[in-house]
Specification:
Distance between the termini: 37 Å
Shape: globular
Length: 509
């Protein structure tokens, strides 16, 4: 049990016989209260504010899953170099299943082994969600009923164990520049180990250009790909994640895509993503929910940039260029919008500070998860009413599309306003006007190819408008180029490509 405990205690009334009548009995009364508080905390589901080594982490997640088995499960997406499981805690009212129409969200912590605050507050978040759900918290129950939440406290458990040998007392692990334990056991920086997708996007042939689910280039497989990276890539490509964040340390700021400077040979330069304005709005959601981030004077500057007095957010590449970062990969190779949360100047603070970090971030963690329910959502269906998988959802004026999941459901985070949205699939195309209101739940915007729809003939020269309850010849022009990886295209092709990744993972064992 840690030095500090967090719990919501139910109101209680003491019998009159226990009320103190003298100063001496007051001490007895105080002792009784302490016992009551400790016992109530243990019974309500606690947060244990301490560091969790690998075995402690495994136990904490499994104990929480056992306590909240009706809404949670623990699973692993793979193993680290040294054989530690990459645990994920899932919360859902139907754990283990993608429910049509329900968005999926993920948090990843401890990508750099010595950046430990994110790892611990994700453990606390897991315990908090369980205990508050059981306590009947309306907000938490709604969040878990309406969202499939995946939480990976540590992507780099080997690096953490290495950093923990020195702990918080050494400047080599803590401080804003400490790096002992940062890398994985193969000495790989996991946040430089993903394929750099921005140059791939820029260098596409015009006739084969796509703005989403880009092919992973051949050259990437000739590099040393860490098993942790590969596991997260497979996981990210399999699940229809909508929104995510990875938690780091060394500063106090939200960093949003692009991290990569693309083809520019510079150290730092603003690298604007097609969803730049949306990323900035989502970043502000986290900053506004945080007790200190973006609030000038609340935090000592971690570096001369002093992001706290500059709104608490930055474009990744404007801070410094990162090729091979995870958030860029998520944006360009999957449907998921992902950002980086830097949570502390001190990468490995003293254990006594962990409760404060949790309190600083708790509300921000929750409001950011709730943001997955904004923008537009809906289904794309065929003439028989069946969901159409892998249809493309395009928004006029935004050069970045998303695709539907296996049941034809989709989610597209958007800024408030009126948007012309087009659903297209193998020659069919339908456009609707969808209105997104500020501070409102996602607008339902469904598409049906059984209604009056335009069919673009395979030769691209003729269109026919009418009832489209039949299936035309598919347009093959957007098939992925050979020698590259993508889950864009037919479901069978996507499954084949995932098999390639899986075989790569097995080959590394």
């Amino acid at each position: 049990m840690g030095k500090h405990m967090y719990s919501s205690l139910a109101p209680f009334t003491l019998p009159k016989s226990l009320l103190p009548s003298t100063q001496k009995s007051g001490w007895v009364f105080l002792g009784f209260l302490v016992v009551l508080v400790v016992n109530a905390a243990r019974g309500a589901g606690e947060i244990d504010f301490r560091y969790h080594h690998y075995l402690d982490l495994s136990r904490a997640l499994n104990d929480t899953a056992a306590r909240c088995r009706e809404i949670s499960q623990v699973y692993s997406v793979g193993k680290s170099v040294e054989g530690r499981e990459l645990w994920v805690m899932e919360f859902s009212d139907n754990p283990g299943v993608h429910e049509p129409g329900e968005p999926e969200f993920k948090y990843i912590g401890n990508m750099h082994g010595n950046e430990v605050v994110g790892r611990e507050i994700l453990v606390y978040l897991v315990q908090y969600l369980c205990s508050r759900y059981q306590a009947g918290d309306t907000r938490i129950r709604r969040l878990i009923h309406d969202t499939r939440i995946h939480i990976m406290p540590s992507m780099n458990p080997d690096g953490f164990e290495r950093a923990a040998t020195l702990g918080s007392d050494s400047p080599r692990t803590s401080t804003s520049w400490g790096s002992y334990g940062r890398l994985n056991a193969e000495r790989i920086d996991l946040n430089r180990n993903f394929p750099d997708m921005l140059p791939v996007w820029i260098l596409q042939e015009p006739s084969q250009r796509r703005n989403h689910h880009l092919d992973i280039p051949e050259w990437y497989w000739e590099t040393l790909v860490a098993p942790e990276t590969l596991a997260v890539m497979i996981w990210s490509l399999k699940q229809p994640f909508v929104l995510a964040a990875n938690l780091h340390g060394g500063s106090v700021v939200v960093s949003y895509p692009f991290d990569s400077c693309g083809l520019r040979k510079v150290m730092r330069s603003y690298s604007e993503a097609p969803d730049d304005a949306l990323f900035r709005k989502l970043a502000k959601v986290y900053v506004d929910g945080h007790r200190k981030m973006g609030k000038c004077g609340q935090v000592e500057p971690c570096n001369p940039l002093n992001f706290t007095c500059k709104g608490g957010m930055t474009n990744g590449a404007e801070w410094y260029c990162v090729a091979g970062g995870m958030q860029d990969f998520s944006y360009m190779a999957t449907n998921c919008l992902e950002m980086t949360f830097e949570l502390s100047c001190d990468k490995y603070p003293d254990e006594s500070e962990l409760m404060t970090y949790w309190e600083d971030n708790k509300e921000a963690l929750l409001t950011y998860m709730e943001a997955v329910h904004t923008g537009i959502k809906g289904f794309v269906r065929d003439g028989s009413g069946k969901g159409v998988a892998n249809a493309t959802i395009s928004v006029e004026g935004v050069d970045h599309d998303v695709t539907t999941a296996s049941d034809g459901d989709y989610w597209r985070l958007l800024l408030p306003g009126t948007h012309n949205v087009t659903a297209s699939w193998e020659g069919f195309e339908q456009t609707r006007t969808c209105v997104v209101k500020d501070s409102s739940p996602a607008t339902i915007c469904d598409f049906s190819f059984a209604a009056t729809t335009t069919w673009f003939a395979p030769n691209g020269n003729k269109t026919v408008t009418g009832q489209t309850s039949f299936i035309p010849y598919p347009d093959r022009s957007s098939n992925p180029a050979s020698g590259s990886f993508s889950v864009h295209g037919s479901l069978s092709f996507g499954c084949y490509q995932l098999l390639v990744l899986a075989l790569t993972a097995v080959w590394r064992l």
